[in-house]
Design brief:
Blueprint lengths: L4 E5 L5 H11 L4 E5 L3 H7 L11 H8 L4 E4 L2 H7 L2 E4 L19 H13 L4 E5 L7 H11 L7 E5 L9 H6 L4 E5 L3 H14 L8 E5 H32 L3 H9 L20 H14 L3 H28 L8 E5 L14 H11 L3 E5 L5 H9 L7 H6 L1 E3 L3 H5 L4 E4 L11 H7 L5 E4 L6 H7 L2 E4 L5
Parallel strand pairs: 1-2, 1-4, 2-3, 4-5, 5-6, 7-8, 9-10, 9-12, 10-11, 12-13, 13-14
Helix pairs in contact: 1-3, 5-6, 9-11, 9-12, 11-12, 12-13
This protein binds nicotinamide-adenine-dinucleotide (NAD) and uridine-5'-diphosphate-glucuronic acid.
Organism: Danaus chrysippus (African queen)
EC number: 1.1.1.22
Protein name: UDP-glucose 6-dehydrogenase
């Protein structure tokens, strides 16, 4: 079978950009991205896409209406597709068995049942969402238990490695594409068919094929390794603050060893994002279920250290402000979980803001890309607070950094947006309350210059 039509279930941060790039690079394949949410699909079909991602607008503009379509007509799209990506969300369970750790596979199961209900011809079903090892077996069981006569399914694992903020570059110049399939002639044929799609732009040597379970586990492992590097350097940032060593210098020296490498060693306020914590918790739960408590405890420490880092930073803010922030105006610069995205999922800024609000602070928040309502939502939804009205009263969202800092006792930098590096800090010093405090949670500011202007400055991994 030559793949002529692709359907993607889930028009989120993964489904949208991934399929847009497939459409760009494979002009002869019709790609339809579907979602249950009409609002999301309408946004994909509008001038203001539902996610901010550098380079994405141009790709969508070039392909939309040509061979790229966004639709809520899931039935039509499944019926015509040769290959179906499942890119639905796989959040951590919030209730029941495994609550707080296990992946909630209800959307994966829902997608598999939709395909089983609708499909009337052979399909290659590709698990793109991040899932626990053996999740493909669930999809397989559902599909094969509901197969219509003459319909055959092949299930592949093809995890996604893009990072938000660099998704388009990550997809166009992927270091590796991973495809796992069954070790049967039909399974291997399906693997080759998906390889063919990627070979339109990815060199064959960068396409790795494995068995299904290795592919599923490799995705969890990759995220766990990345997060572990951040927790490792963050643990050392505490040692630096206590001793006078500088964590940036330590990272530079350690990273120069080519066996370790320089990337992903930026000490910070803690990692955020929708996946690191979720995927490690998933690995921990899996290890526990496999009766491997030592393995679970090892990875648990990566998450615990991250919580410690967020707490340590926030405690430093409060203690520096004479151990009371009640009724004090505090400017928060940056709310997304990293620069170049409007995504706030698991952003460390949420923990910082929530703790300061609990202490009675008045927060003045500015982020260049996060929607105002999203900030209110993150700080006032029931899992965060049982006093949503109070939260709204104590938050003000600003259109510029300058208006957020006016009259503030402290400036707390939570996201490393480039524009924060070039603000006029002399002007900011003038309009802030004195003593004026800066807490740089991302180590991006010129601390010497700030100290010379009269600021009290604290950062991560360096005593000033
Ligand atoms: P998301 O929440 O942005 O998007 C998921 C979408 O799926 C939602 O719009 C939802 O409405 C839709 N959906 C759910 N069930 C559906 C169904 N049956 N039919 C059609 N649509 C359905 O999630 P995301 O960030 O794109 O992540 C998706 C998966 O990819 C997750 O497993 C995640 O771990 C993984 N992943 C995410 C990233 C990332 O950077 N966000 C990177 C790599 C992997
Ligand atoms: C991460 C991985 O990098 C992707 O490969 C993966 O596909 C994705 O998760 C996923 O599975 O969802 P993402 O979360 O989008 O991508 O962004 P990262 O660049 O990895 O940053 C994650 C968090 O770690 C951010 O809060 C960032 O600020 C923080 N970070 C990153 C540090 O604190 N220090 C660093 O050195 C690097």
């Amino acid at each position: 079978m030559v793949i002529e039509k692709i359907c993607c279930l889930g028009a989120g941060y993964v489904g949208g950009p991934t399929c847009s790039v497939i459409a760009l690079k494979c002009p002869n394949i019709k790609v339809t991205v579907c979602d249950k949410s009409l609002e999301r699909i309408n946004q994909w079909n509008s001038d203001k896409l539902p996610i901010y991602e550098p380079g994405l607008d141009e790709v969508v503009k070039q392909c939309r209406g040509r061979n790229l379509f966004f639709s809520t007509d899931i039935e039509a799209s499944i019926l015509e597709a040769d290959l179906i990506f499942i890119s639905v969300n796989t959040p951590t369970k919030t209730i029941g068995n495994g609550k707080g750790r296990a992946a909630d596979l209800k959307y994966i199961e829902g997608a598999a049942r939709m395909i089983a209900d609708i499909a009337t011809s052979n399909k290659i079903v590709v698990e793109k969402s991040t899932v626990p090892v053996k999740a493909a077996e669930i999809i397989m069981k559902i599909l094969r238990a509901n197969t219509k006569p003459g319909v055959e399914y092949q299930i592949l694992s093809n995890p996604e490695f893009l990072a938000e903020g660099t998704a388009i570059v990550d997809l166009v110049e992927a270091e590796r594409v991973l495809i796992g399939g069954e070790d049967t002639p039909e399974g291997q044929k399906a693997v080759q068919e998906l390889c063919w799609v990627y070979e339109h732009w990815i060199p064959a040597k960068n396409i790795l094929t494995t068995n299904t379970w290795s592919s599923e586990l490799s995705k969890l492992a990759a995220n766990a390794f990345l997060a572990q590097r951040i927790s490792s350097i963050n643990s050392l940032s505490a040692v630096c603050e206590a001793t006078g060593a500088d964590v940036s210098e330590v990272a530079r020296a350690v990273g120069r060893d080519s066996r370790i490498g320089p990337k992903f060693l930026e000490a910070s306020i803690g990692f955020g994002g929708s996946c690191f914590q979720k995927d490690i918790l998933n690995l921990i739960y899996l290890s526990e279920c496999l009766n491997l408590p030592e393995v679970a405890a090892y990875w648990q420490q990566v998450v615990s250290l991250n919580d410690y880092q967020k707490t340590r930073f926030t405690r430093k803010v409060i203690e520096s402000l004479f151990n009371t922030v009640a009724d004090k105006k505090i400017a928060i610069l940056g709310f997304s979980f990293k620069k170049n995205t409007g995504d706030t999922r698991e952003s460390p800024a949420i923990y910082v803001c929530k703790t300061l609000l609990d202490e009675g602070a008045k927060l003045h928040i500015y982020d260049p890309k996060v929607e105002h309502e999203q900030i209110f939502y993150e700080l006032s939804h029931p899992l965060v607070t049982n006093e949503p009205e109070n939260v709204r009263k104590n938050i003000q969202i600003h259109e510029t950094a300058y208006s957020a800092v006016a009259g503030a006792h402290a400036l707390v930098l939570c996201t490393e947006w480039d524009e924060f590096k070039t603000l006029d800090y002399k002007k900011i010093y003038e309009v802030m309350m004195k003593p004026a405090y800066v807490f740089d949670g991302r180590k991006i500011l010129d601390h010497e210059a700030l100290l010379n202007m009269g600021f009290h400055v604290q950062t991560i991994g360096k005593r000033l």
